[in-house]
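Reading a protein record of the kind used here takes only a little practice. The integers have meaning only within a learned vocabulary of local backbone shapes. With that in mind, consider the following protein and its fold in token form:
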Amino acid sequence: MPKAEKVATVAEITDRFRSSSAAVVTEYRGLTMAQLTELRRSLGKDTAYTVAKNTLVKRAAADAGVTGLDEMFVGPTAVAFISGEPVDAAKALRDFAKAHPLLVIKGGLLDGRPLEAGDVNKLADLESREVLLGKMAGAMLATLTKAAVVLNALPSQVARLAAALQDKRIAEGESLPETAPVAADETPVSAEAPAEGADADAAAAPDDAAVSSEAPAEGADAATEEPAVQA
């Protein structure tokens, strides 16, 4: 491999070590190209299954600041660089290794921490993020439904409790206060208002009558006085 090509390969692998959320180191000795293609397809687009020489992978890991993986770079090595969900990729690698025992999972890297082969299998046994989110959403929905049922039942429960307390007080001989007849008190007030107005009109009417009856009397006296002067 020309030197320029080696430099480009190291730079590419270094960038993948830095940008990936996880990486799994495998040995693919004895697998055919068709099987490797099948493995890449099962890993999906979020995982890059990279085959490279151990010397180049070691140099790239060192340039990326990755430690603890050098002992795994022995034999035909391929690294699965995971940019998506690590659990899904670990499941795909584990399942493929079960179907094709020639694929050997050596270990890996998760969030900058080295993993043993057993750790990768434990990671594969975990539920994926989507499944956990689904379970969490289901649990939250069940809690909200239960809360809604409890809140809807509160008014009827309060009413039953109030009735039970009232029955208990009556059974103990306690006399309950009677409710004042508010409507009966309000009726006379409205009936008295027209009576007061009628009294005022009646009081004013005689005065007006007296004034009007006195005016003609004064005019009559003046008329009787004039003939007496002429005589």
